[in-house]
Design brief:
266 residues, alpha+beta, 3 domains, elongated, CRO Repressor
Length: 266
């Protein structure tokens, strides 16, 4: 059956135009456009074919190939989505065109994966290295800025890893896959640090500004980067030697201690 025969008869008489008064608020046109109900069966068939093809090609790419191309996953998803989406319901997009496009994406993906495995230059050009975000309880604010990692995004990941305060973190890396891996300090090297409370909870924490008098001596941590230092009572808070920030908060050894400080401030 030709698509011209699938069109509604009244649409064919009107030339398919929706500008005429009788087509305004036409539910048939709104739901089905200019096609008949039988075209829904073809959409089901098209979807089944394209879906089966997509499953096959994703399986063909393989876990190793996808792992090698982690920086390009987003591009692959967009390309596959565009290639398999339109043929499902556009009658003027042939299925064969979609299958060729999807097959081409698979070939290119596996080709780039093979190239990066064989060529050191290609690997350096196409792959990315892990980026260090935290070193010995201190955040690398420049690296976080370059990679677009927000403070609370990092804190959320650290909390999910069971970390209660930044001093417990020996190293944290942003992996090429976009995940953040965490190495914790050994128990013998544990130190007080910046509490990793959620943004809505950390607000009431008592903070101290540069040149403000230190009333209670002890360990404090920079609010911006997490650098920890001990100050004697009677002195004044300096600027942070790492990030030059002038805002400090009491260092803690556990989330319980930080939450107690929050409760006493409320």
């Amino acid at each position: 059956m030709k698509y011209s025969e699938v069109l509604r008869p009244e649409s064919a008489k009107a030339g398919g135009s929706i500008m005429k008064g009788e087509y305004v608020f036409d539910l048939h046109r709104i739901l089905l456009g200019e096609m008949s109900w039988i075209f829904l069966a073809e959409i089901v068939l098209r979807t089944a074919i394209v879906y089966s093809c997509a499953l096959f090609v994703v399986r063909a790419i393989g876990k190793r190939g996808m792992g090698q191309l982690a920086p390009f996953d987003f591009v692959i998803i967009i390309a596959l989505g565009s290639a398999v989406g339109d043929p499902m319901f556009y009658p003027n997009v042939p299925l064969l065109h979609a299958l060729v496009a999807v097959t081409g994406i698979v070939i290119l993906t596996r080709g780039v994966a093979h190239l990066t495995q064989r060529s050191k230059y290609a690997e350096e050009l196409l792959s990315t290295d892990a980026v260090r975000l935290v070193r010995d309880g201190i955040m690398d604010l420049r690296a976080m800025g370059r990679e677009g990692i927000a403070r609370q995004e990092l804190f959320e990941t650290l909390r999910s890893a069971g970390v209660q305060q930044l001093g417990d973190v020996e190293r944290a890396y942003l992996e090429p896959s976009g995940k953040i891996s965490v190495f914790r300090q050994p128990p013998t090297h544990a130190r007080a640090g910046l509490p990793l409370l959620p943004e809505g909870v950390e607000g009431p924490l008592r903070t101290y500004k540069e040149r403000e008098t230190v009333l209670i001596g002890g360990c404090y941590t920079c609010w911006e980067c997490g650098y920890a230092a001990s100050f004697a009572s009677g002195g004044t808070f300096p600027g942070c030697r790492v990030c030059q920030c002038g805002k400090w908060v009491r260092a803690v050894t556990s989330a319980h201690e930080a939450l107690t400080n929050v409760a006493s401030s409320e």
